[in-house]
Amino acid sequence: MPVSSAAVSFFRQRLTAHRHFWRSSAVGSVLEPVLFLAAMGLTLGTLVDRGPGVPGGVGYLAFLAPGLLVAAAMQTATGESTYPVLGAIKWDRLYEAVLATPARAVDVLAGHLLYVAFRVTTSAAAFLVVLLLFGAAESPLVVLALPVALLTGLAFAAPVTAMAAALEEDAAFAALQRFLIVPMFLFSGTFFPVDRLPAVLEWFAWATPLWHGVTLARDLALGTVDGGSALLHVGHLALWTAAGTALAARALQRRLVR
Known about the structure:
GO cellular component, one term: ATP-binding cassette (ABC) transporter complex
Structural class: mainly alpha
Family: Belongs to the ABC-2 integral membrane protein family.
Number of helices: 11
Subcellular location: Cell membrane; Membrane
Radius of gyration: 19 Å
Keywords: Antibiotic resistance, Cell membrane, Membrane, Transmembrane, Transmembrane helix, Transport
Main location: membrane
Helix content: over 70%
Distance between the termini: 23 Å
């Protein structure tokens, strides 16, 4: 998607607004995953390591941390693409005001995705620092988990934006969280290998962007990444991003341009 000067201007407007609530957003985007990491990785992880452990002989903290990094990116991107998008269309009419300038609907989408990319990248970078302080990485390739988290976030943000742009009311967002985001968080490899799941759920996990992001980030953090598998994971995430962006552009054009 081309990024015009109008898209950059809208992105800057979102950054200006973000300055007023960055502290509260940091709590949800960084502190909550860190608490999960401490609670699950250091306490439950001790029990797991005393037992059969994680396949491959890695410690549970090292297994969990990159998964939480990517899962947090999913949650941040989804959160920025549900209520804020519908609100900007229907309640405060921010997008309508932007379109009163020479900006187009596609510029609104590009600016929104730039802002989501900023939110995901900064939150993931902060979490990555904590991950390193915890000693939860076994390879310097873990730094590449940051672009993986970004791509995973966009793979969720784009289709969720398309959904939000097509809605009249916000009730569907609760269903999205309850029936898609939370199950993916729990069953897409963040906390345990998906091959422990029943076959139907394992196939579900393989189809999700989160599993591909989590698996690639974990392979990088553990130093076990394979070039062919990495390309497959990146391709899957890029496909979700591209398809979602196309749908979102179409939905916003229909909704905003009368």
